[in-house]
Amino acid sequence: MKTKVPFFDLSAQFKSIKEEIQSALDEVFQTQQFILGPHVKALEEKIAQYCRTRYAIGVASGSDALLLSLMALGIGAGDEVLLPSFTFFATAGSVSRLGSIPVFVDIDPGTYNIDPAKIEEKITSRTKAIIPVHLFGQCADMNPIIEIAKRKHLSVIEDAAQALGAEYKPKSRSEGHLAGQMGDLGCFSFYPTKNLGAFGDAGMVVTDQSVLADRVRLLRVHGSQTKYYHQSIGINSRLDTLQAAILIVKLKYLEKWTSERQKKAQRYQLLFQDLLSSVNGIKLPVIQYQNRHIFHQYVIRVPERDRLRQFLTEEGIGTDTYYPLPLHLQECYSFLKYSRGDLPNSEKASEEVLALPIYPELTEDQQILVVERIKAFYKH
Ligand SMILES: Cc1ncc(COP(=O)(O)O)c(C=O)c1O
Predict the structure, then answer these.
(1) DSSP designation for 287
(2) Which atom of ligand 1 sits closest to the CA of residue 134?
(3) Residue ID of nearest Cα to ligand 1 atom 8
(4) Three-class DSSP category at 71
(5) For the chain, does the N or the C end have fewer beta carbons within 10 angstroms?
(6) 274 alpha carbon to ligand 1 midpoint, in Å?
């Protein structure tokens, strides 16, 4: 079966900016400076400006952004860090790499983000930080999270890997806050399929606090300011200069691409209307408050998810399941002794979610086909 609607397609986007990318790469080739340098610095300044933060520090990946943020806060062996169970593995993996313990919190079933009402019961004397994840491109409910963190003297690291440009706007008239701007540190991923994707791995940490910015900057170069002299034990995690040159070109288009994604989301919303009343259990993405959702993913809930997914694959329509097994039930975390039933909203979401194709170049005909085939499945 020929793929009619790929789940993701980067080639159309590349075609539209190919010359610009090639000349940006040529510029780096001319200088032969491949580690840090002016391109990385320029990207850091642009991302800081875009996120309205004072500092941005380029690192090798979103996973390293999380790891370096935890290291900068001095989080280590035996410390506990609260985070949602329904997220990509890196959110918890970075905590475990440092000998710290991830403590899994259940999610809000509407937004899939960490449920602030379930945070406080998990705090102990060993808790040091909370990592809310802005999943699928919508900010977690940050006001209550920050209020708890302040009261309990905890740090907040935003995992904004999927949410560059998303805005948290709990009140209609006031100005919103951008993803990455609200916690002590914010972490971004430029993994190729992200809304702003590099041609390989890359990431960024943003913060308003100069002490933390300096720590991350030091730790990403083995804790060394002067060559071969090491103040701290860091890691090698710099944002690659070629990736920075590519990202500078692509950042110019991010707002346009985001608004295209939002239009596709609105179109899905319209196309799905009649199915919502005829099939029980189908749910479309929920936008909380007046948030600016950047639709990194368009994730619906459906009954018989695995059968539907199989049917769509046979029909040439790509989908994905983010995430099929919540983190508290992963084999590598069996030593933490969680059981099925402990975090019911995360477990239910992992059985029901289905991510549909969404990217700026997705056509109206393709979207009509996706929805029409889903309708056909439920008519069987
Ligand atoms: C929520 C979340 N956190 C962390 C990461 C890690 O980012 P990276 O793949 O750039 O290491 C990702 C992306 O893959 C992610 O989606």
Answers:
(1) P
(2) 1
(3) 62
(4) helix
(5) C
(6) 35
**How many Å lie between the centroid of ligand 1 and the Cα of residue 266?**
26
Model confidence at 364, pLDDT cuts 50, 70, 90, reads very high
- For residue 348, count other CB atoms closer than 10 A to its CB: 15
User: Residue 354 CB: number of other CB atoms within 10 A?
Assistant: 20
Atom of ligand 1 at shortest range from CA of 63: 11
pTM, two decimal places: 0.98
Tens digit of each residue's pLDDT (9 = 90 or more) over 164-212: 999 999 988 778 999 999 999 999 999 999 999 999 999 999 999 999 9
Distance (angstroms) between ligand 1 centre and the Cα of 189 equals 6
Q: Is 127 helix (H, G, I), strand (E, B) or coil?
A: strand
Strand (E) or helix (H) holding 128? strand 127-130
Measure the CA–CA gap between 268 and 289, rounded to whole angstroms.
20
Average pLDDT over the chain reads 97
Measured by CA distance, the residue closest to atom 12 of ligand 1 is 161
Confidence at 1, pLDDT banded by 50, 70, 90: low
Residue 191 Cβ contacting ligand 1 at under 6 Å = yes
Closest C-alpha among 335, 327, 300, 269 to residue 107: 327
DSSP output for 263-284: HHHHHHHHHTHHHHHHSTT-BP
CA distances 284 to 45, 274, 302, Å, are: 36, 12, 9
